């Protein structure tokens, strides 16, 4: 695993319920990829191959639009290590959630 991505999807929505519904569709897509992920209150972290993760980030925007958002913004954080592994979600957060 040479990359880790954190994505915060911010779809335009008429109200909080609609916002949550759209974000839930984006998260459902991330879950469907089969990659290791962690949903937090502000963003979702995903681990995997850099190119695959970049495709997922791109698709997350399409998912939000297909779910009904007229526009979507996203904040993306990327850790990439072409030779070797990046720190895992488990190593970063498990000790804080026991």
Q: What is this structure, in a nutshell?
A:
The chain is an alpha+beta fold.
Task: Please outline the helices and strands.
Elements: E1 3-11, H1 16-32, E2 37-39, E3 44-48, H2 50-66, E4 72-80, H3 89-93
Helix pairs in contact: 1-2
Can you name the CATH architecture? 2-Layer Sandwich
Q: What structural category characterises the helix and strand content?
A: alpha+beta
Strand order, main sheet: write it out.
2-3-1-4
| Name of the level-1 CATH class | Alpha Beta
What is the helix/strand order? Answer: EHEEHEH
Instruction: Characterize the biggest β-sheet.
Output: 4 strands, antiparallel
CATH fold-level assignment: Alpha-Beta Plaits
In whole angstroms, how far apart are the ends? 25 Å
- Number of self-contained structural domains: 1
- The best one-word shape is globular
- Binned, the helix content reads 25-40%
- DSSP strand tally: 4
What does this protein look like?
The protein is an alpha+beta fold. The protein has one domain (about 5-80): Alpha-Beta Plaits (2-Layer Sandwich). The protein contains 3 helices and 4 strands. The protein has helices at about 15-30, 50-65, 90-95; strands spanning about 5-10, 35-40, 45-50, 70-80. A 4-stranded antiparallel β-sheet has the order 2-3-1-4. Strand 2 and strand 3 (about 45-50) form a beta hairpin. Helix 1 runs antiparallel to helix 2. The longest helix has 17 residues, at about 15-30. The radius of gyration is 14 Å and the shape is globular. About 20% of the residues are buried. The mean pLDDT is about 95.
Keywords:
about 100 residues, alpha+beta, Alpha-Beta Plaits, four-stranded antiparallel beta sheet, 4 strands, about 25% strand
């Amino acid at each position: 695993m040479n990359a880790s991505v954190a994505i915060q999807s911010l779809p335009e929505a008429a109200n909080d319920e609609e916002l949550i519904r759209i974000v839930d569709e984006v998260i459902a897509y991330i879950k469907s990829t089969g990659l290791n992920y962690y949903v937090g209150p502000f963003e979702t972290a995903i681990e995997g191959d850099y190119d695959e993760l970049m495709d997922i980030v791109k698709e997350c925007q399409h998912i939000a639009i297909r779910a009904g958002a007229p526009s979507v913004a996203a904040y993306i954080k990327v850790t990439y290590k072409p030779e070797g592994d990046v720190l895992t979600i488990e190593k970063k957060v498990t000790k804080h959630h026991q």
